[in-house]
Amino acid sequence: MLTTTGRHLLRAARHSYQDASACLDLTRPLVRKADRGALFAVADGVSTAERGGEAARVTCAGLERFFTDPRFEPSGDGLRQVVAEIDAEIHAWGRNPEDGHTLGAAALTAAWLSPARCLVIAQLGDTAAFRLRGETPDRADLITHQHSRGHMLTRFVGQGGGPQNVALDAFPFDDGDTLVVVSDGVTKGLRSPQIGTIVADSRNEQAAAEAICAAARLAGSYDDITALVVYLEDWELWS
C-alpha cells in the first residue's frame, strides 16, 4: 500500500506478508490536527504467544494515541510513555496456563519524525530501523538494538517492563534522507549493504519496500516479512 502526503513531500510505502505496521503521516486528519510530525512503525507478533498477531495489531493501532491523547507530550519521552502503556495493557491479558507464555507479545520499532528535524526511535524486540542519508543514498546504517538472546526476545511489548524497558534513541533526519523499518523476517535474510543497494536502485518507495521483501524471501528468510520505506523530500514544506 502506498501512502503519500497531499503535497507528496513525505512519501512512505509499506509491503507486508504478515506482521502489522502503522503509517501515521499527514494523509491522516488526526496527525495533521495534532501537528506533531509523523510516526511509522512495524510490529511483529511473537509466534510462541497465543495472541501474538493480535498483540502486533493492537500495538500499531494504539500508537495513534500519541497524536490524540493530551496526556502524552510531543517528545521522545511521550512516545516512550505511549509504548509503555500499550505494553502494560497487553501484559494484562495474562499468561497461557499450559506453557506459561504471555498470551500477547510483539516486537516493535516505532519511528517518530518530529517537527524539530529529529528521528526518534522507540523499540522493543528484534524489529529494526535503518537510516540512509541523502549524501550517501546507498548506505543503510542500522540504528536500532537487538533485544534477543538466541531465539528468545529479552524485551517485547506485553512483557510489562514499564517505560524504562523501552529503548529510546534520537538521530538527525533531513531532506533527502530515507528511513527503512522492517520486521526480523527481513534482517534474517538481508544485511545493511544489501538494503542500501535495493533502496538506491529502486525507482520509488513502493518499489523499494516490495524489493526488500522479495529479496529477503529469495535469500531464504522463512519468517513473516514486512518493510516500510519513508522518503523525506522537503522538510520545510512538509512540516
How would you describe this protein?
The chain is α+β, with helices and mostly antiparallel strands and 239 residues long. The strands form 3 sheets. The chain has a 6-stranded antiparallel β-sheet. It has helices at residues 29-34, 52-62, 65-68, 76-91, 184-187, 192-201, 205-218, 235-238; strands at residues 2-4, 10-16, 20-24, 38-45, 106-114, 118-124, 128-132, 141-142, 148-149, 152-153, 167-172, 178-182, 226-232. A hairpin with a 5-residue loop joins β1 and β2. Mean pLDDT is 89; it is low at 1-9. Helices cover 29% and strands 28% of the residues.
First-to-last CA distance:
23 Å
Instruction: Name the structural class.
Output: alpha+beta
Share in β-strands: 25-35%
Q: Spans of 5+ residues with little confidence (pLDDT < 50)?
A: 1-9
SSE run: EEEHEHHHEEEEEEEEHHHEH
Which whole number gives the mean pLDDT? 89
Number of helices, where a helix is a run of at least 4 consecutive DSSP H or I residues: 8
Q: Give the tally of β-strands.
A: 13
Radius of gyration: 17 Å
What's the assembly state of these chains? Answer: single chain
- What is the 3D shape? globular
Biggest beta sheet attributes: 6 strands, antiparallel
Portion in helices: 25-40%
Could you give the topology of this structure?
Elements: E1 2-4, E2 10-16, E3 20-24, H1 29-34, E4 38-45, H2 52-62, H3 65-68, H4 76-91, E5 106-114, E6 118-124, E7 128-132, E8 141-142, E9 148-149, E10 152-153, E11 167-172, E12 178-182, H5 184-187, H6 192-201, H7 205-218, E13 226-232, H8 235-238
Antiparallel strand pairs: 1-2, 2-13, 3-4, 4-5, 5-6, 6-11, 7-8, 7-12, 9-10, 12-13
Helix pairs in contact: 2-4, 6-7
